[in-house]
Write a structure and sequence with these properties.
Chain lengths: 346, 298
């Protein structure tokens, strides 16, 4: 024990790791964490796929056949026709057979906002998922600790837990937002004017994606801080709901300045092709004939307020997301032993 | 001799005012030993293993695991916690696959699958449908499939039937012998330890009370019956028996006349120390931490 020899003998029984992993790997990934994520949260992945399919399906339907009845009414009577169509609600395939009280379900005007409502619900869903099944349940079950005693550090585990959902959220929500704006550009003029289109116009954009990402990061942080699924789930659900409620028109930086008007170009077209003021005939065909109106054009013009508001909101949400992520990694360090390896006494 | 695990003044306190689960705990576990970690409930066994596995932050002191800080040699350390957490929604086959994915450089799929097959488990069974013992088998298969250099096992065999316990202990010991794996295993089942282990760490009051090779420790103690003066020796425990006393002593020199001397069994040694928490600690030189040894030689 005294006079330790300088050259340590080679450890003779050190296990030689010849064992080739014979397991088939289907997905690339430096340590299989991606596979692990997808396998462990398969149910969530199905729910997510269901959400994406329903939202995208609704949007495509709105883009195509869903708008045809409203467009027809618009072509005949102008904005008044589209308005009437929105109130009557006859564009949904089976709306003629629906009971009277369900008829608003069917109009282009009401269905148009459904995917937007879904994105709001989605943010709450993401927060609840991130707090519960993604993190806190693993902490409660002890499977998080189990993963950390495999060859994976907690930090890399958390990176996978954040990036895989974040990637799916960004790609999928981003796609929905783009399609949504296309539908808006094509058919926004068919909506009943008022707070509806304005609120929608200023709501959907990059900030929608940032909102979902924030929900993810906040849920993860809440789970790591609270360590238990139920409280974490409740807190992050409420916070995601509040942020969603603030979004669009009630951020402090917006002051009392609610959604501005969106400029609109709305004209009637005569048989000669001239654009004139809408004569205000409403659904009176004789009146339209008297004014020689054969068609209408109506288009929302881009608002100067859109990008400043969207980008401020996106910036704030992404900033909060980044703070949550940093905080999550700091909290995660409390779960591990101190890394001080130097300074041995004696 | 290389060191697998070395603690120096390790303290862990749960909450600011709670009594310490580990209180200035120092020891050294040489490489290649199969060590039993015993102690009464709440002695800090699970805490010590969890810190070594990199799952818990110590309050102060330091712990070196395979020459690195705790949690820095994750790939080379296998850990089985007391409650054997596994994902309930996965099948046994998927659980093994998870082991492969999370241990890409070390995974021995055939070996892990073999351990599961020995228990005649259907790989398609969901983990939530397994009995406690079957879960232990799967958890142990993953811990072993990783081919660790140091195995930290917290009550590994508690819920196994005697047959499975015997068989899995055999697997574990064969693996340790073949690859020179160091094993630190907490258990209450003394008979199991006596067969399998060659080294002992007895935790009590948050520190090591007995530490060293089992043969050395047993050899240092005697079970004596008779009458007379024992003050020369360290009496761990003594109780009246017949006209004299039966005592477990730590010998210091030869035992005097009039005593009937026996070698204690491991069980007797452990029980005597568990019943007498005030007995002074005994840590053999190979198990004393480096800091303590330098203090002694200085």
């Amino acid at each position: 024990m005294s006079a330790p020899s300088l050259e340590k003998p080679e450890k003779p029984e050190k296990p030689v790791k010849q064992a080739k992993p014979t397991v088939r790997r289907t997905l690339p990934g430096p340590d299989g964490l991606v596979w692990t994520m997808l396998r462990l949260h398969r149910t969530a992945l199905w729910v997510w796929t269901g959400y994406a399919v329903i939202s995208l399906g609704l949007l495509l339907w709105l883009w195509g056949p869903g708008a045809s009845a409203a467009q027809k009414a618009f072509d005949t009577f102008g904005y008044a026709g589209a308005q009437e169509n929105g109130w009557e609600g006859k564009s949904f395939p089976f709306s003629a057979w629906l009971p009277e009280f369900l008829s608003p379900l069917g109009s282009f005007d009401t269905i148009f906002y459904e995917p937007a409502s879904l994105t709001r619900l989605l943010a709450i869903g993401i927060a609840v998922f991130a707090a519960g099944p993604l993190i806190a349940r693993e902490l409660e079950l002890g499977t998080a600790g189990w993963a950390w005693t495999q060859s994976v550090t907690p930090a890399r585990w958390l990176v996978a837990k954040l990036t895989v959902p974040a990637l799916l959220i960004t790609v999928c929500t981003g796609l929905l937002v783009i399609v949504y704006r296309l539908v808006w550009n094509a058919h926004g003029h068919l909506l009943i004017a008022g707070i509806g289109p304005r609120s929608f116009y200023f709501n959907i954009g990059p900030a929608t994606v940032a909102n979902a990402l924030f929900a993810l990061a906040f849920g993860v942080l809440a789970a790591l801080v609270l360590r238990r699924a139920l409280p974490a789930l409740a807190v992050s659900g409420v916070v995601a709901y509040l942020v969603g409620a603030l979004r669009g028109n009630s951020w402090p930086f917006q002051g009392r300045y609610q959604q501005p008007e969106i400029p609109v170009h709305s004209k009637a077209i005569t048989s000669g092709g001239a654009e004139i003021r809408d004569p205000g005939c409403y659904l009176d065909k004789a009146c339209l004939a008297r004014h020689d109106v054969t068609g209408f054009t109506r288009q929302y013009l881009p608002s100067q307020d859109y990008w400043p508001r969207q980008l401020t909101e996106t910036g704030i949400l992404l900033g909060l997301t980044a703070l949550c992520v940093v905080a999550a990694f700091l909290v995660l360090r409390r779960y591990q032993p101190k890394k001080t390896t130097k300074g041995a006494r004696g | 001799m290389n060191t697998a695990l070395e603690a120096t003044g390790l303290v862990k306190r749960y909450g600011r005012h709670a009594t310490a689960a580990l209180d200035d705990c120092s020891f050294r576990l040489p490489e290649g030993r199969i060590s039993a970690l015993v102690g009464p409930n709440g002695a800090g066994k699970s805490t010590l293993l969890a810190i070594a596995a990199g799952l818990l932050r110590q309050t102060s002191g330091q712990l070196r695991v395979l020459g690195a800080g705790p949690g820095e040699a994750r790939a080379r350390v296998g850990y089985l916690s007391q409650d054997k957490p596994l994902h309930p929604q996965l099948s046994v086959a998927d659980t093994l696959r998870l082991g492969a994915e999370l241990n890409p450089d070390r995974w021995d799929a055939a070996y892990a699958a073999g351990i599961v097959e020995q228990g005649s488990l259907d790989p398609r069974t969901k983990v939530r449908a397994l009995s406690g013992g079957q879960r232990t088998r799967v958890a142990l298969a993953i811990a072993l499939g990783k081919r660790p250099e140091l195995m930290l096992l917290d009550e590994p065999m508690a819920d196994l039937d005697p047959l499975a316990r015997h068989e899995l202990m055999g697997t574990l010991m064969a693996d340790a012998a073949e690859h020179g794996t160091t094993v630190l295993m907490s258990s209450h089942i003394v008979a199991e330890l006596a067969d399998a282990c060659d080294h002992l760490l007895l935790l009590g009051g948050g520190r090591i009370r007995l530490g060293g090779g089992i043969d050395d420790l047993i050899g240092a103690h005697s079970l004596v019956t008779g009458r007379g003066d024992l003050s020369k020796h360290t009496v761990v425990e003594s109780r009246a028996s017949g006209r004299g006393v039966t005592a477990l002593i730590r010998r210091d020199g030869p035992v005097g006349e009039g005593w009937q001397v026996q070698e204690p069994s491991l069980e007797e040694l452990l029980l005597a120390h568990l019943r007498s928490p005030e007995a002074p600690a005994l840590i053999t030189p190979s198990t004393a931490s480096t800091a303590d040894r330098t203090a002694v030689t200085a």
